[in-house]
Automatic annotation (TrEMBL), chain A:
Lineage: Bacteria, Bacillati, Actinomycetota, Actinomycetes, Streptosporangiales
InterPro entries associated with the record: BP-dependent_transpt_permease (IPR050366), MetI-like (IPR000515), MetI-like_sf (IPR035906), OppC_N (IPR025966)
Protein name: ABC transporter permease
Family per similarity comment: Belongs to the binding-protein-dependent transport system permease family.
Species: Microtetraspora fusca
PANTHER family membership: D,D-DIPEPTIDE TRANSPORT SYSTEM PERMEASE PROTEIN DDPC-RELATED, OLIGOPEPTIDE TRANSPORT SYSTEM PERMEASE PROTEIN APPC
Taxonomy, superkingdom: Bacteria
Automatic annotation (TrEMBL), chain B:
Compartments, as annotated in UniProt: Cell membrane
Protein name: ABC transporter ATP-binding protein
Pfam families: ABC_tran, oligo_HPY
Membrane protein topology class: Peripheral membrane protein
Lineage start: Bacteria, Bacillati, Actinomycetota, Actinomycetes, Streptosporangiales
Main location class: membrane
Cytoplasm as UniProt keyword: no
CDD domains named among the record's database cross-references: ABC_NikE_OppD_transporters
NCBIfam families: oligo_HPY (TIGR01727)
One Gene Ontology MF term: ATP binding
Family: Belongs to the ABC transporter superfamily.
Span of domain ABC transporter: 4-254
PROSITE patterns: ABC_TRANSPORTER_1, ABC_TRANSPORTER_2
Keyword presence, Nucleotide-binding: yes
Amino acid sequence: MTAPLDPTAPAVVAAPSGLPAGTIQGRSLGQIAWMRLKRDKVAMGGAVVVVLLILIAIFAPVLVGWFGHPPNEFHQEMIDPSTMTPKGGTGISGDFLFGVEPLNGRDIFSRVLYGARISLLIAFFATLLSVVIGTVMGVVAGFFGGWVDTLISRAMDAFLAFPLLVFSLALIGVLAQFETSLAVKGDTLRILLLIFVIGFFNWPYIGRIIRGQTLSLREREFVDAARSLGARGPYILFREILPNLIAPVLIYATLLIPTNVLFEAALSFLGVGIPAPTATWGGMLSDAVKYYTVPHFMFFPGMAIFITVLAFNLFGDGLRDALDPKSSR
Amino acid sequence: MTFLELKDLRIHFPSDDGLVKSVDGLSFRLERGKTLGIVGESGSGKSVTSLGILGLHKGGRAKISGEIWLDGEELVSASAEHVRTLRGKKMAMIFQDPLSAMHPFYTVGAQIMEAYRIHHDVSKKVARKHAIEMLDRVGIPQPDRRVDSHPHEFSGGMRQRAMIAMALSCDPELLIADEPTTALDVTVQAQILDLMRDLQRDFNAALIIITHDLGVVAELSDDILVMYAGKAIEYGTAEDIFERPEHPYTWGLLGSMPRLDRERTERLLPIKGSPPSLINVPSGCAFHPRCVYADRTGGRSTSDVPELLESEGGHLVRCHLSRDVRRAVWENEIKPNLEAS
């Protein structure tokens, strides 16, 4: 409550502080988030590893050319014919940095590097697919509400209730039967299939988050303010609501990538991923199970998965803290 | 022709618990260049009314009936798209909290430019020039630099000035200010109220000020409408309401308002009880459970809904007490208490 105000009080305009122009720079929210992220050492460490992994995946052929051997080249001379295991236990040397596989002596170093390509390729595009479907569905459900919302929300429930792993095993198995009649074949077909299966069934997670965010954004006062000035629906959707969704989309995309890396590894491990002889981390782990006496065979692809997932998760957590400081702690 | 006229406006929201009658039969008129203050507690229907005039409930769950005439056009029956074209250009709104009413991602200038470009097909350059002029007009120093600032870089008062600039960017003839100074501190409130009065004079706009703060309406309003439970319970000129109030609820509001001309040792007199549920509005006069004078109506306050009747010269009151009783109570019991010190 206010006392009746003195109408003679002059309207004092806050004087400019007198600082020379340019001394204090205004910062946009993006710049502020970037500053917070840069201060977060753990997240930046994660980011560096992520960037390194991406570079390694892109330049795998070059790196293998320098430090290794072609990933599918057999090196029987490295194998002890009596036990079929690498000579000297692991075969690790300056020539074979991570040693060689039992049985056929393939270079583990170059297979791990090539495995990164498959893993990251599938994880990125599957995530992209989930994010695109999830964001569109979530925004449509949240913004339009009513029966549209009911329909999409029930669809999400149905998708989440799906026994995804079993379904993926069946679907990929069945579709592979028709390989000869399809336009794409071999590894390309399998990669596309994995991207589709992993991406298509994960969208409800991000869809739910985006729907909730849209619902609460729709009721925010700046949306009312824009409407009170005569803004049209599309303007409100694209200019007022979508920019506010960039942060959650980025965060959940970063956190979804490691999940998808694991899922792809799991599918490859179960034998429905990319077929041999193409190198994948999951496939290598699957092969390594048979050779528990040569632990380094399991160690390197396992570490690759571990480091990738950890780096993405640390970076994702840091990104969330930077973009939405209220969300944690 | 009256510029703005509401006739028996009703805005009801169906809910799981029943029908919420947020606005229940509201009528008033407002001319260009005049200011109407709408006062009432939280939930009395003030804000719902203002959003209803702007047509922002259209397409939602609200059930709207009655008539809203704006400059010869009826808005309740008009299409949502037509009402949209009127928003911004013909009528605009100033919100309570400019920090939440401005988009955090865009610069203040960009938002004013967008508001202008919704209704004017001009280049960004022209719109930017207009935005700078508007910022200058509302008293923001160095508008050519401030135009590129984000809302969070402004102080509360500057933000409200920018919000006003945004609302005025298309030169609306009706301006609705919903609690325009509530989020500001007291010294800044006075500046913003002065600014609004000056701008209203310059633009010759009709202004509706919605507030729970009688100090604010005392400052600006020509006429005052007191709302309770979705209905008008007293309507009159500012002089009527402050010098000759006739409704017990208005007396309560005046008694609960701190005044500079009263002793500070005196206690404020709150209105007992809390605002009624809008689903189960009390029978008869909605105010009767909280009314000290209900027993003087001979039982009618619990059974009959009082009519909004003219007391004298356009001063309307919705009360079962007879005019003579009301005046006697005001003169003998209320006024001496308010003025005593």
